[in-house]
Design goal:
By secondary structure, this protein is of the alpha+beta class. The chain has a single domain, classed as endopeptidase fold (from Nostoc punctiforme) (Alpha-Beta Complex), CATH 3.90.1720. The chain is built from six helices and eight strands, in the order ααββααβββββαβα. The strands form two sheets. Strands 3-8-4-5-6-7 form a six-stranded antiparallel sheet. α2 crosses α3. The radius of gyration is 36 Å and the shape is globular. The relative contact order is 0.16.
Amino acid sequence: MSPAPSSRSASRLALTALCASALLLAACAGGPPARHTSSLPRTPGKPMIDPSAGLEEISIQAMSLVGTPYRYGGNTPDSGFDCSGLVRYVVQRAASVNLPRTTEQMGQRGVSLDRSDVASGDLVFFNTTGRANSHVGIYVGQNRFVHAPATGGTVRLEDMGKAYWASRYNGARRVVAASNLPITPAPAPAPAPSITPAPTSPMPAPAAPSAPPPEDDPIAAFANQ
């Protein structure tokens, strides 16, 4: 006896559902396995190399000494500083570079810089006595430098745009990034110009002429002995 129509319909529905389930399972089993990327090794990036590394620390160290009394022949914060003593102390403390004691010898270390390349922490030199590199300071950015002027004064921040300093600017040198280079010849001495040309960036044109500081002459007396 044949089954009732309702029974045959129920059987067909059950068979259809069974086939659909089998196809669904086959599709899931055949899919690509999930990738676990968290366990994959990572290649570390190359470290960044800054050719002026350490220079910023030099300018920070120099700024921290503003207000220290000037002392002829001094080379520590307790005893005071003269110009070359200040520079030597700061560069040694901030960058572990041992500079010579005199401004003349400092002017032969590292590499000479164009005016547009001077950066914080570089050394800047001046002709204050008719003699090249008779005074030295540390450039700290924004056209300013830190130096020890002379007896009766203190370590101070100075504007390089002033006519006195702009007309006596002798050049700049970088002594940290190139500290392992052999001594190179210093620039040939040049007399102070009667007319100061407009300096290139980052040093703006000098302000109106001003009288030379009376305390500058003794600077080179000790530093170039």
